[in-house]
Amino acid sequence: MKSGPSDNNSADFPIDVFDAQSSFRRFCTLIEEDKQEEAKIIMRDAVEAAPTQTVLDQFKQVLLRAPQKNNLLIVDLASIYASKGYHQLVKDHLLPVLQQISSPDALKGLNALLSAPSTSPQAESVFEDLSVDYQTASSTTAAPRPSVMDLVKKSLPELLPEIPQNDAAIFEEDSNEYAFTSQASTHTQNSISSGSFLLQLVEQNQFDKAYHLLRELRELGTSIPMSPSYKAAITASITSHDLSVTEQHSRILAWLPLLPDAEPTNPCNIKPIIRHLNNMPTTNLKLLADFAIIMAGKGYTTPLMDCIFPIVIRYSKFEIGQEFLKNFHNAYKRFQDNSQGMVQDKGAGIGMHIYSTAIRTLARARRGADAVALFSEAISMSIRITKHSLDILVSQLQNSGQTELLSKVQDLHSKQLWNEEIPVHSRRLMDLDNLMTSKRINLTSDLAVDLLLLQQAVVSKQLPAPKDIANFMYDYANAGPNDGLTLLLQKALDTSFLSSNILLFAEMMLYHSSHRYDLILETFVDHFQLAGIPREEVLNQHRRIVQLREKYIPSPTSPTPPLRIVSRDKLVHPRGKLWPTVDHCNFVWAALVYFAKSEKTLERLYIKLLRFAEAGKDELDGQATASASSLMAPLPHETRRGNISSMAFTPFIRPMMRAFGEKYGVKILRDMTQLGLRPTIYHYTELAAFYSSKGFTEKAFLVLDHLEQHPQSDDSSTASLTALPPTGTSIYDFFASQKDRFPAPDLACYVALIRGFIISRHAEAATEVARRLSRSHKYVPGEDSFLDAALVHLRELQVQGNAWVPTKY
User: Fold this and answer.
1) Could you give the angle at the alpha carbon of 499 between the alpha carbons of 384 and 273, nearest 5°?
2) How far is it, in rounded angstroms, from Cα 163 to Cα 53?
């Protein structure tokens, strides 16, 4: 029977390449949608059409992304190949995986197929055996059939006419101008064309279309030229609010390989990408780790070591962080091997930098045991650790009393290739918990001289108290240009984390005293890792502040938006953003309370505060939580010195009592004690001031009586809490449960009570508080402006009575 045209095509091309590619894409989609029955049909058809190892590898790669979930499909794939006789192929590529994820019962059928004799088709002759049926025909010599060219020649004249000279001008002369084009392959031309179109879509901000095109080009194996312009697609994926966490992760990792490698002469600036990654509301460690490893393979170690690497090391479990460190190190070594001498930092240098940074990070996170284990691993690999890193590790171990680990560090240090003496000392590294007693320097009235003194203090790390620095900043900012303050802060950022923290704390203190809470948030976002605070709340408020500033139109009636006293555009972080302390975070909580204009927002913010105090991190939204299991745990929000301090509760007391009633003040104190945080004099002052301003005389004096009669001799903010947690809800129940655990009243407490009673027009109560104040504090006119004003208003109230109009406090 004569074969038709379709049969001839089928013989020449047994598999339609485009249909196979389309089927495989459909298979991948069905796997993602968990439609396994439909996926099985497509897989069987593809294998039946071409049972090759290439096809097996394609399906295996997709199915092994989730082996437990795709267990039955993997068994089915192995059974198909085994039934066709490809026993060795199944044993080498699929059986080891199935033995780990499948039960023996599930593999009975497959084992039976593998134990049967192989039916793999052998090489057989495609010719028939000799037969006498064709002897006559074969002996007859048939005339050869004419070729197509012979037939064409017969239809043409023997000699074509010559081209007239007048028409020769239409032809170009021979030239090598098109040599490159003639030699270029069709694949290269298609790659250039596809890459140009992809880049065009990105430059036109059509990121969804560009991403889908990128996936198709990758599936076809098309080479795509690298370009810095793809940073826009990465940034768009990071900042998008419409993508799920998983989709966001996939898109970022898809675009990253298209960024060019780091070159000394023309580096690609990835710091904006890092800034957006750090400011993501639900940053997860898996994304940061993948980003760091990919970019390390492109040579971008410096910005990664400053901003991304410490975060992954600090918050990962030790085993995960250890694996990340090795992958990061190996990725950069591969870049070095391929750089052909372009990279100066070779081998041991980058290894020392990576391991030293990791050990410092773990030590500062109070993970001394993990830091020592990493030190031991570095010694076994003949990697040296810097003296600076060992100093920090030794100091942390001494402060925590871990003598066994300390002796182990000394033993390991003796095994290093070089030895310098490790200073063994018990001095506690200075932190912001003792800033109020910092060494004072004598500031003069000459701002230029004071600026020079502060610059010297930044280098020596002997800065004055933050209050003195804040006063200097205020005077300097009002005197003229602020370039000196910018240079002072930049000097601190260049030389010392401690000095930077103190200066920024003083700047935030200045904004707090002037009620510029927007500048507090801006300072925090500009300079600190978003830890210890509810990231999403802070970023939402910060975006709102920036948008208001961008939309501002100057006019006589609208005030100019306030700016920081330093020029943030001129500041850089050569060693990465700072880790905040709880003292910095307390200012942020106060700012968030200020911007919480509704009762619902205020209550939601307080619930987040309790979660921070309990777990040290914010509760993520449902979308992020659902994907957390596959992306490792999201970034915890912990500060350098614990989860949270009692001072974070202070700004909540009065607003919550105004919004939900006076009983809510006791609830806050009860929540604090249940969390192991003791209320300080600031909390009792807020409580008593609210009672006095609302005329609750008995409750106000109840607070004052307990403060005066049972003062604590130790620091109430740091002493351990041993009293039983309160069980009642009233102020009386609370004080009964606390017994004698109260701080002594200070001058601010008495002044707040006097002012509160003046507001509620209780002159007798205010007079009694003033009398008690005189017993413990000698009044010196002019020493405290708030006390002076309160006593003046009290005398006016006593004279004028109800006719007196109180001043708004």
Assistant:
1) 70
2) 57
Letter string b/e over residues 96-130, b meaning 16 or more CB atoms within 10 A of that residue's CB: ebbeeebeeeebeebeebbeeeeeeeeeeeeeeee
**Whether 369 contacts 405, CB under 8 Å:** yes
What digits encode the pLDDT tens for the residues 754-800? 999 998 899 999 999 999 998 888 888 888 888 898 999 999 888 88
- Percent helix / strand / coil, the chain, rounded to 5: 65, 0, 35
- pTM given for the model: 0.62
- Residue 220 CB partners (closer than 8 Å, separation 6+): 21
Give 72: exposed, middle or buried? Use CB within 10 Å, 0-12, 13-18, 19+: middle
pLDDT at 494: 85
- Please give the pLDDT value at position 85: 83
Closest to 56 (Cα-Cα) out of 89, 102, 14, 98 = 89
> Can you tell me the distance from the alpha carbon of 522 to that of 506, in angstroms, rounded to the nearest whole number?
14
User: Domain spans of the chain?
Assistant: 20-102, 220-430, 431-595, 600-621+637-713+722-808
Tell me the residue type at 738: Q
19 or 734, which is more confident: 734
**Residues paired with 528 in a beta bridge:** 578
* DSSP letter assigned to residue 636: P
Segment 446-458, tens digit of pLDDT: 888 888 888 888 8
**Helix axis angle, 785-800 relative to 747-759, nearest 10°?**
30
3 state SS of 578: strand
Class of the CATH domain delimited by 220-430: mainly alpha
Half-sphere exposure of 375 (CA within 13 A, CB side): 32
* Whether the predicted pLDDT of 524 surpasses 90: yes
**pLDDT (tens digit per residue) in 613-651:** 877 554 443 333 333 333 344 444 444 445 678 899 999
Which DSSP string corresponds to 692-731? HHTT-HHHHHHHHHHHHHSB-SS-TTTS---SPPP--SSH
Distance CA 310, CA 367 (A): 13
Cα dihedral 695, 701, 706, 711 sign: positive
| pLDDT over 90 (residue 264) | no
Answer yes or no: is pLDDT of 433 > 50. no
Task: Give the Å distances, CA to CA, from 349 to 244, 355, 445.
Answer: 40, 10, 48
